[in-house]
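sorry for the late reply, my laptop died twice this morning and i had to redo everyting from scratch. anyway the thing you sent over, i finally got around to it. pasting the sequence first so we're on the same page, its 262 residues, then the predicted structure underneath. double check i copied it right bc i was rushing
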Amino acid sequence: MKNEINILCIGDVVGSIGCEFLRSKLSVLKRIEGIDAVIVNGENSADGNGITPVSAKHILDSGADIITGGNHSFRRPEMHTVLDESDCIIRPANYPEGTYGKGYTIIDLGFTRIGVINILGVVYTESLDCPFKTADSIIEKLKNDGIKNILIDIHAEATAEKKALAYHLDGRVSAVFGTHTHTQTADEQILPNGTGFITDLGMVGPTDSVLGVKSELAIKKMKDKLPVRFAIADGKCHLDGCIFTIDVKTAKCTCVERIHIE
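ok and here's the structure:
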């Protein structure tokens, strides 16, 4: 049995161009870094926003084990049934009871199991159940099922909310990583009680863009204050993420490595 596992967490995949770039890089990255499991945020993986069955399948076929979501998880109606049926695609757990899909899942590596939880922040986003109480409840369920190694994707706008949740859970989960802003932060760290953390993983998509969108469209929206139909930029791409090395027995993070690939 391995003493440590390497979990690769990848930021928001933007559009079909991001999906293609992910596919071109992921298999080699997994081999070079000795990756045991891959978690990818895919809520923006469809052209025009949201996630579709096609973009989800593309991400999973490219080598991801789990797809996490966010505030755009339900934008495409054709995805609702998939969310209900899949154990590999999750959405934020703090949506109301009865919402399509599930908010957490389990990766079974044979020698150990990994719990993955998806949470949506409530500062500047949606008015949902408390992220802190939601996380507490699911962590208790997972640990009662014997699962110690737990990672959380906090899809949120506010840096303070992401950091506060990480410190709240320090020592109770293996890692907390942020998504949503599409901009990678440089604050990867191991918190005092052994939880790995980064405020935002970043994104997979076009480099010359405003968060993946054609820059001229984003500028027009901000200058004119009128509705604009966004379109995904093209050109060169990059992939952002983070590798969390976790001690299987203690469930503590022993290393956090931020990655940026062009």
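The helical segments are 15-33, 53-61, 80-85, 131-144, 159-169, 215-224.
thats about all i looked at so far, will dig more tmrw
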